Amino acid sequence: MNQKLTGSFYTPEELVGYMVDYARQKMRIDSVLEPSAGDGRFIRYLSDFGLKIDAIEIDREKVSALKEGYPNKVALICDDYINYSLNNSKKYDLIIGNPPYISKKSMSDEKRNLSCALIEYFQLPEALFQNLWVSFILGSVKMLNPNGAIFFVLPFEFLQVQYAEKLRGFLETKFNTIEIITFEEKVFEDIEQDVCLVYMSNEYHAKPYVKYTTVQNVKNMNVIFESVIMRNKPLKKWSNCILNDIETESLKRIATQFPLIKDFGEISPGIVTGANSFFILNHKQLNITSESHLVPIIHKSSDLNGKLILTKEAFNEISKTNNTFLLNLNQLPESEFSSELKEYLQLGEKEKIHERYKCSSRKRWYDVPIVKSGDLCFFKRFNTLPRLLVNEPNIHTTDISYNIRLNNKYDKYSFAFCFYNSLTLALCEYNGRFYGGGVGELVPSEFKNTHIPYKEISVDKIVKLNSMFLKKESYTQIIDFVDSEVLALPEDQLEMLKEIRNKYLRRRLKKTDEVLLKEAIVNGGK
Ligand SMILES: C[S@@+](CC[C@H](N)C(=O)[O-])C[C@H]1O[C@@H](n2cnc3c(N)ncnc32)[C@H](O)[C@@H]1O
Prior knowledge:
By secondary structure, this protein is of the alpha/beta class.
């Protein structure tokens, strides 16, 4: 069966041993549940310790194979774990394993209904259920003894995605001890998925805490980083536990001295075409329709690397070698379509563009809704440095960017200048999330709720910063220059902000400051 559809990526044996030993040394265990046994590697390790073990596995063939190896010691049950947890009142001291990661979209209605029933049981919002691992956590909360522990291998995204925020909050009310173990190197060689270990228990008389530890890899579990949060709970994102209480409090205290980005104007994502490669044309394809039915557009942030200000001339230059013209057929009756345009649309239908989700829900599949452009663009995904730029010619963008239309009293050049300071950049890391490969991202609400120390900046300083970008000076120099103009903070506070951002960069990009600095100098910090 397809590994991805059944969520069957087996835990490395070293990690199985580490997790079982960790739990045994932390608590007294009598009964254990392995909710998705797979090839039985957890139960094989557990069975040496004279514990009462129940193991669930949905796949009949896997259960039969397991039964041959474990005739008496382990109670093997062939069931869907969500079904089992809903219909069983048994309780366990330790629930341990590596649940399947299966997105809601790939599940049958019957399976989805089971998970929804579990969500309803805890009176949690249904939007929380996006993946089967969420249901495995909830099923385990239901089946746990009051002083028991859950220890799971979970996707790293659990620590930071917005849809799981309510789940993290709920778990903070259920458990006083939450320990997260992350890995500097990949755990599963063959897949992109970043994972972490999450251990949750109620330690007798313990003060609630969230602890975040980083180890090298599954073969070398020596701790290379550790941080604990005790005061700043509930912690919206457990991934932010890389900051300790003092750093978290300082960051928040400094941030609240300054306004939020959303206070400066109107902010909205750019155009969703549904198929950029079809709707966004290059200059050779312009014979399809007249200029009045083309909208200049930016759809790749890499086209704008190394710029603080996008000028009309720079955009024209980009247009020579990139696709920058969006087909805008809104209000154009079909009777006025040129034969080239008709042919092009037919080609789109041949390639099934009209059946794509966004296109198929439109009255005419090729009418791309045009939304407003802005004075400034913020690119929602970023590598080393989040990017905000002045959009002088008011060019449209796709939804790669959030477009800002400033209120009249603010100056767009000053706003772009002020953005590149240590506080705002640290907050982008704190408020956002990152994906495998290290790409950072801010969703609209996270961007809007980021603080910025705005002030009017003189033209000569804006010109200087612009030329620093164009000359690809290092980000460190750029940030130092902006800090010196906009952040009147004591040296130790400035240093702390820089260290906070560096902590995130080291985790996200897995690179030290030194390497990042060298790269920034060579590449202009792409
Ligand atoms: C990621 S593997 C983990 C196996 C093993 N626990 C380990 O750590 O190596 C997930 C297992 O969950 C099983 N599975 C998938 N959906 C399930 C469900 N709803 N209930 C119980 N097991 C399920 C799959 O067949 C697979 O064997």
